[in-house]
Amino acid sequence: MRHARRRIVRRVTRLAAVGGLLLGGVMVTQAAMASETPRAATRTLSSAGGTADTGAALVARLGTARAAGSWTGTDGRPVVAVTDDAAARTVRRAGAEAKVVAHSMDQLTSATATLRSAPRVAGTAWAVDYRTNRVLVSADSTVSRGDWSRMSHVAAGIGDFVRMQRTRGSFTTRLNGAQPILSTGGRCSAGFNVTNGRSDFILTAGHCGPAGSTWFADNQGDQQLGQTVSSTFPGNDFSLVKYASGTAGDGAGVVAIGGGNGVRITGAADATVGQRVFRSGSTSGLHDGTVTALNATVNYPEGTVTGLIQTNVCAEPGDSGGPLFSDGIALGVTSGGSGDCTTGGTTFFQPITKALTALNVKLIVSGQNTGGAQGTASSPAPSAAATQAAIAPGGVTPGSAAPVAGGRNERLLARLTDTRNVGPGLLVIAGSLIALVATRYIRAEQDRKAYQRYYSATWG
């Protein structure tokens, strides 16, 4: 009976070892495939000259008198607003969709210039809606009847393509990474890590604090992060916080999205209207939406900020400075907006490309195929992932997953459980081989001892 049980145990062990070898082989194969550079789906638009054109490139080629902006359609194709049939034919030959509209970009820009020259009214914002060929002027709940009437009079004097609308809530900066950073002025969120080649910095919102502000990673003020060395607000809304240690450390190319999870940042680019985007912040976590307008102007109580990305992504106080991204491509940092993540609202973002240029710094990016090694983005040019974000908005993700940098044990566990590494597969294969060798050895030893017992009994 005992021998039968031993045989069953040996057989089960051998089967488990063989299964482990097969599983380990599959894991190593998947890791090898994951380590290859992914080929993102791309759409090439063939123009008359045989070169690829995006919607923005077509608008630039046609000029502001014949075009009125571009956006991404629901099918992923670029849509270009044009003012005449000849321009429409040029767009269609390039492979994009054309929409003939009444007002050119020159007229729309002139309208926003008139609004900017009017007396400033806090709580108002405006942006060009390319899809409706209108300038939308929004006024929040803090705008009085008298100011609303005066703004409406200015809008009516420009033309019927300027539309006034009331919004819920109020346009405020989202003061209070997506990791939280704290100072005596309040709480903000870290945006992206950047470098000037000598020191590393946190890029966040300018309204979070003036130059000289000291930031901490905890409420007690024990863990000093660094100090603001450059801040621009109003006008623009970005600032640099220099790390006290001089370096951003492990995980510098990853932004947190909550629950100990993160997303690898692999480049920077300009946002496009219609693009699906994601925002992360220390108050409300990860949320998504779409870009509704570019070059927006917001009149905060503290001052006016121009050139912003307008979205329907929600945000709440404390999310200020947090990252806006899509498919791992950095797009901007949270400036402000209205509403919250219960009722929804409008949120504005400082474009990252403008901030990088103005501050003369480079984005620290994550090496997806080098085990998380860090690097710097030498230019804000979009990668293949940015193209994918514009081509298939419905299938866009925040980006490739990565653990948020923590202790050594957490990083070791992340490496061992990461399917992109061959280590786990090799460990399974090694363990299975050891089990097979062990079962063979044990069986051989048992056979040898049985042989000795048999001949000892036979020969006395």
Characterize the main sheet. Answer: 7 strands, antiparallel
Q: Which descriptor suits the 3D outline?
A: elongated
Strands, count:
26
Gyration radius from CA atoms, angstroms? 29 Å
Question: What percent of residues adopt helix (DSSP H or I)?
Answer: 25-40%
Low-confidence stretches: 34-52, 368-372, 378-394, 406-420
Classification by helices and strands: alpha+beta
Query: Overall pLDDT, averaged?
Result: 80
- Percentage of residues in DSSP E strands: 25-35%
Describe the structure.
The chain is of the alpha+beta class and 460 residues long. It has nine helices and 26 strands. A seven-stranded antiparallel beta sheet has the order 12-13-14-11-10-24-25. Strands 18-19-20-23-22-21 form a six-stranded antiparallel beta barrel. Strands 1-2-3 form a three-stranded mixed beta sheet. Strand 4 and strand 5 form a beta hairpin. Helix 1 (2-34) runs antiparallel to helix 9. Residues 34-52, 368-372, 378-394 and 406-420 have low confidence and may be disordered.
Summarize the structure.
The chain is built from nine helices and 26 strands. By secondary structure, the chain is an alpha+beta fold.
Which structural traits does this protein have?
alpha+beta; seven-stranded antiparallel sheet; six-stranded antiparallel barrel; 9 helices
